[in-house]
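To whoever is covering the structure queue this week,

Two jobs came back overnight. Logging them here so there's a record in the thread.

Job A:
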Amino acid sequence: MNFSEVDRSEPIALHHQVAADIRRAIADGEAAQGERLPPAIDLAAVLGVNKNTVIRALHILREEGVLDFTRGRGIRVVGTPARSALLTKMNELVSLAREQGYRKDELASMILSVQ
């Protein structure tokens, strides 16, 4: 995977820059589904950041459904940035539905009725 050092002059937090760089690499096909990512310490060295910054970025991508952490198997790509964006929007929809008083089954029925 081709990475460049993060831009410390950017107003975007370093861990978000790292997450975006990994998303780009996956979208560009540099890391395919099922492929393992290099260890966080190696990514940190290439990107010029602290290992903890990379770990924060990896956790963001795990929450988005792009990566999976499995003990003994490392960090693997399990999704795509498009899937990640869809899951984010779905979580927003579920949150909005709950705020409006809808139950999951009611939301599911509404979704199924959309053409």
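Job B:
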Amino acid sequence: MKNFIKYFFIFWTIVFLLFAYWQINDPDPEIWVSVYVVAALFSAMAVKGKHPLIPLGIVIVACIIGAVYFYPSSVSEWVNYELENKDLTMKTQQSEEARETFGLMIMAIVLSVSAYIGWKKNY
């Protein structure tokens, strides 16, 4: 199980770094590159067995608040729009915000796993 957790966080470190790279040409790269680099750093720390609960908690709460803020008015409309366009370029602001919502939700879930592991270690 310990190896699974290690590889889980290695995978997410790489994915978050890729997400950061793909944000470079975003309209607001300084925000989103930073957000994904922070997630990659916490994932890399988890690979080493470090799970700082207070910073993780702050980032998780911030991700959830951001996801609620950017949540699309209709998920099914957004998914259908993405499937119809068949490309990942930003077409509308709503499309971009929907993607940001799901990126933040993924971060919150992955970092919650790290926080849970850290909490279990301490108790």
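Note for Job B: The helical segments are 2-22, 29-47, 53-70, 75-85, 93-122.

Please reply-all if you pick these up so we don't duplicate work.
Q.
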